[in-house]
Known about the structure:
mainly alpha, disordered C terminus, two-stranded antiparallel sheet, globular, 70% helix
Amino acid sequence: MKSPMSLQFEKISIIIILITSQTIALHRIAFLDGNDLAVGILFIGFFMKIILRKEKYHFTLLDLLNLGFIGFVILSSINGGLGSLIKSLIAFKVAMLSFLFGNFICKKNVANHFIKWLTITVSISSVIAIIQEIIYIKTGYVLAGSLKEYEYSYLLEVKTFGRTVLRAPGFMVSFKVFSFLLITNMLIIFNRYLYSQFKDSKTKIYFFLGFCLMLIALILTFSKDSMIALFGGIVFSFIVKRPNRIIHILIGLLILGLGIYSVGLYKDIFNLISEEIRWGDVMMRIQVDKDGIYGFINNHFWIGQGFGKGWRYINNLYAWAAHNNIILAADEIGILGLCSYLLLIGYTVFSIFTLNLTVKNMEDKALVRGLFFSIIFLFFLFQTHSGYIDNVLWMYMGIIQGVVLLLGVRPSVKKEIEGMEGIELGNP
């Protein structure tokens, strides 16, 4: 069992990481930010604790895969040069982040502490996003912290109703990354409601208010694919919980479709969607992705162009890189790095999927299924994202690893492994 002092370190570390990851726009210096420094310091502190107190830890297959991935990112700097090598520090950072969360979340009370503070911090970020939108509507001022000029331009969008809106990012620099955190937390909360896992009505209201704030903030990001991901996650969560209701859902959708068609609304809906989708941007992204595929196949196939250098393959005025995580990974770290990247994600999805099949306790099942749909639809969102290494993605990899350690081994088969700590288990 962990000492109270040890658990206190882990709980405080979680709060620090959550806060600094959601306020990056307030503390950036050059290519570093407060979250980078926090993760690095806490990682050192965790190992000092291990050395001085002789505490044990978990080093899992996920961590081994992370080391392999780091190796391929560094290898790409042969073609990318010194700039690529410096930027590859982000791979070390996310690996440390994943390792820390894996070792923190494998304790039941720390896992509960994380869910609580994730909801608190993301709810506060949602309130900030709502305030940002109100200030922009009233004054035209973008209250978003320290942003670069091109980052500001990405936050503003002209809508079909003729008004420019702010795609509210909180203080996370990117509205897209903010939406990642919103939908994953909302799917965890939704599954808790679906399985009625609340201790009292006060806690239930607290999570409901948090969900509502996050939903408003998600709408204010004006991220269409994020809204689709949330809808898909909710629908599939409901179907998995009540598979006998799938026929009712299909019949309801059929009736709705026939109703829309019979009154002629389908033309108006199609025109509205067509006006909302910026087809020029869509075609540009398709061309960018095609250039990326052609570039990595015909140039640096094995080890890539270099981390952060994917834009070199693209013939584009704005120096865009591919807007698909798989294509961009292939462009920058080659087919070897891409395979390593997909192994990381595949291992994470497989781990939480197999745990989903075995877990029996309803509270545990709510958490596991919330995490399963979170990682699935997070990966879906990365198919239109101009990045493949991200704090939120690696944080959830670590969280899932921690939950697998917490719930995946039963007392009858639990074994002490040298260098690793025995885990606290949820109810069987």
